Amino acid sequence: MKHNDHPLLQRRQLLALAATAALGGVPAAVQAQAGAGTWPDKPLRMFVGYAAGSGIDTTARQLARQLELVSGQPVVVENRAGALGNLAAQAVANAKGDPHTLLFTPNSTHAANTHLFKKLPFDPVKDFTPVSSVATLGFVLVCDPQVVQATTVQQLVATIKKEPGKWAYGTGNATGLVAGAMFKTQTGTDLLAVPYKSVPPAIADLLGGRVQMVFADATLAIPLVRSGKLRALAVTGSRRMAALPDVPTMIESGVPNYDLTGWFAVFQPAGVAPEHNARMASLVQQVLRDPKFGESLRNIGAEPESSTPAQLAQRVATDTERWGRLVKLAGIEPE
């Protein structure tokens, strides 16, 4: 049997052709030629810096499934939870020149963590090759309705001020940490930040009564809010979420100038050949053109957003400065 006649290889090529046709992409003849021998030519590894079941993990696995279809290669998601995404980023930085190694990460590793840590084990610019943005993501202030009686942000603030020293918020990522610190600073409330490796254990402790509030990524918050297990008091962005249209923004809730959203993006290690970087960017953008994939993101509180590698590099530069201002505003000292 010839290598190209192997049933598994044929199946992957057929999946790639079907996905391309569904996305209205490259003609079938061109795609067939690409599937026969162009890059990627072996499985891809996608590192995620948060635990399985977290919001970013859910999004990463959705993207991985679609990349398998358009690339014809398996995409293995590897979770390296801890240090606000730094462990996964370090693993990818160490794979210099390997185009088959990907980092799916939020803004923490490439914008916020520079200001949250005294020293990073990688350089967010020099150690990575930008591929494409994937989505922007809002955050939601949630509490347990069985424990917290407040139904608005103003009621919550009044309650916290009556009970100083008794309130804590769980945080499982950089955006949630800064969101809580900004809330504390701008409302003049006494809150303790309790760090977790990712958001799911923070929510578990919220439901267990060990913390009173969490600034959760929408991906995790939405199903719990819809089921009634959690109450959403406000979203952190400047606009309401399509998935939670009845939940007001922080600004609408009386916290002026409060605007905080995160983003997800794909990076390769530094030293990747330009043609492999361009090919990977094309594959990610092809997935993002699929209306069904975009709808799947919106259903979990994210908004699809693709970019060129150059545009992502510019976003990293701009957001690094922005997050410096936000961290300073929140009163957070680097650790």
From TrEMBL:
Residues 1-32 form the signal peptide. It comes from Ramlibacter aurantiacus. The keyword Signal applies. Belongs to the UPF0065 (bug) family. This is Tripartite tricarboxylate transporter substrate binding protein. PANTHER family: BLR1237 PROTEIN, TRICARBOXYLATE-BINDING PROTEIN. SUPFAM superfamilies: Periplasmic binding protein-like II. The lineage of its organism: Bacteria, Pseudomonadati, Pseudomonadota, Betaproteobacteria, Burkholderiales. Gene3D superfamilies: Bordetella uptake gene, domain 1, Periplasmic binding protein-like II. It comes from the Bacteria. InterPro entries: BUG, Bug_dom1, TAT_signal. The keyword Kinase does not apply. Keywords: Signal.
